[in-house]
Amino acid sequence: MPGFGLPGRPRGSAPTGRAAPWRFLVFALVVTLGGLYAAPNLFPPDFAVQISVDNSDRAVSNQFLGELAEGLEVNGIPVVGTELADQGGLIRVADANDQLRAGAILQERLNPPGDERQFVVAFNLASTTPDWLRGIGAQPMTLGLDLKGGAHFVLQVDMDEAVAKRLADELEKIKNILREERIRYHSTDDAVQGNTLFVSFATPQLRDRAVAVIEDEFREPDYVLETVEVGGRPGFLITVQDAKLREIEDSAIEQNLTGLRNRINQLGVAEPLVQRLGRARIGIDLPGVQDSAEAKRKIDKIANLEFRLEAAANDRPSEIEQWPYEGRVVDLNKGIILTGDHVIHAAQGRDSETGLPVVLIKLDSQGGEMMHEATAPNIGRRMAVIFIEHKPIVTTEIVDGERVDKHSSRAEERVISLATILEPLPYSFQISGLTVDEARELAFLLRAGALAAPMYIVEERTVGASLGEENIERGMIAVAVGFGLVLAFMLVYYKVFGLIANVALTLNLVILVAVMSVLEATLTLPGIAGIVLTVGMAVDANVLIFSRIREELKSNPPAQAIAAGYDRAFLTILDANVTTLFVALILLTIGSGPIAGFAVTLSIGILTSMFTAIFGSRLLVHLLYGLKRAEKVWI
């Protein structure tokens, strides 16, 4: 029975017109879905200010948003509308200037200086896509920073805290060595000061023994070890040299960069840019979405865990700390078993027995060994989990008559769990004692990785397209003019078949945009170049087919000529497109940034152009010439 073999390729010598009905259904379904999922790109988003709760007891409600909108109207900022969103609300305004002014007014009203942040005020682009389209998962295509602009943040890394944390680790390392050698030392809470640390002893002999066992670990050029008097006792002083300090700072920046990239990747921001700025700052560009409140809240937030054993009866008072827990005070050992730095995976879940929220933890190999070694000999003893969160604080000072905001952070620590060790803990276990929001937040931060030092946002702004509006406009005009000239040429030169090619070419672009929207691929200027190349390849396929049909018409009737034209041009078109697809996939594999954007668009475009140029146009030809015996064709 006559029909098609490969897409667009007739089987046997059947007339071109006889196509199975299911092929029309497939083509109509693809075109319909393509139109639906490309449609959201026709609805440009509104500029908006997004508000979400951070540390406030007041929830974001319609009444609350109405009060804020009235305040903006009083200050001369027209409000387009308000709506509740996930974990907060949106206030829509007319343009980017109103957005900036509204953000400043709301920031001052909702987050008074000198107190911890109550609300997150962030710029956003509010979708105007109809609800029925969003209901089927349709959303606009994401535009890159060069086409749409986005949000720009500058974060200051607290290098003093990074150095203090590293020196505290070194001090703990020294204490472990001394304990192993059974050398008694005197411990104080202020043993780390600036770039120095010190330890004191009861006698000069103990001090000399201690120096002898640690001098190999702490020697020049990284450290300078000196014997001094510490508080009237013999001791030693270790000074970290500038080169080592710079190494500590570089390590802290790199760890924070890695943690930020992991956090932003989990937020689903398309093609973000995270880079180091100078000695102690990190710049972040989030394209397309301008920012979301969730991203802003989590960018500068630091949370970690500490695991400690409950104090034993024979522990020295200097090794014990008191912590409040569930209305009482518990004694915990100062020694830290491990921290969240050793967590390689964390997920929010619920306890199978109680149904309460938990965080499922998986440790790396070193952390698993440390946990097993600490819990195996302490079965029956209780272990505490301490949740540590650094909250940003903004204080305002008047310097030379101008208001200056100073950023810092405050660490809040609390015991979230104190449970009896029933068996040696393995590499995987769970943590309870958290609310649902705390479990979700902790799992997110642990998955992203620990940060070496606190950070806080010192600059936030929305940025325009990096290429400039004029250049983008010219690029779009060039694409439109080129596309129009191609359509005109095909129509004039190939007549009715040119019209069919133009319809297929237009459908190709619609399907291409729909696929990129569904895949959440980011369109950049190199991506537009990929679309232009796709248009050229789609036209090239039609030119090959139509030229072949012209040749066949010299010796065959129209029905056979059309069938032979599609049949004999198919393999040539397939070879050319597959070769280009391989190159695009290689670029996608080894490339990044603009190269990846070009490769993604080109790869998708090759597949959609083959579908429309061969399969689609063949069916359109059938509608014109396949239902009746044609004596003459316009080509």
Describe this protein with a few key phrases.
single chain, 635 residues, alpha+beta, five-stranded antiparallel β-sheet, four-stranded antiparallel β-sheet, 15 helices, disordered N terminus
Give a written overview of the molecule.
By secondary structure, the chain is of the alpha+beta class. The protein contains 15 helices and 24 strands. The strands form seven sheets. A five-stranded antiparallel sheet has the order 16-17-15-20-21. Helix 1 crosses helix 12 (469-518) and helix 6 (159-180) crosses helix 8. It is elongated and about 115 Å long. The protein starts with a strand and ends in a 9-residue tail after the last helix.
Short note summarizing the structure:
With 635 residues, this protein is α+β, with helices and mostly antiparallel strands.
Which secondary structure elements does this structure contain, and how are they paired or packed?
Layout: E1 3-4, E2 10-11, H1 21-38, E3 46-53, H2 62-74, E4 79-85, E5 88-93, H3 96-110, E6 119-126, H4 131-135, E7 142-143, H5 145-148, E8 150-157, H6 159-180, E9 192-193, E10 196-200, H7 204-214, E11 223-230, E12 233-240, H8 242-267, E13 273-277, E14 281-287, H9 293-299, E15 302-310, E16 320-325, E17 328-339, E18 343-350, E19 357-363, H10 365-375, E20 382-399, E21 402-420, E22 428-431, H11 436-448, E23 455-463, H12 469-518, E24 522-523, H13 525-553, H14 558-590, H15 594-626
Parallel strand pairs: 7-24
Antiparallel strand pairs: 1-2, 3-5, 3-6, 4-5, 8-14, 8-23, 9-10, 10-12, 11-12, 13-14, 15-17, 15-20, 16-17, 18-19, 19-22, 20-21
Helix pairs in contact: 1-12, 6-8, 8-9, 8-11, 12-13, 12-15, 13-14, 13-15, 14-15
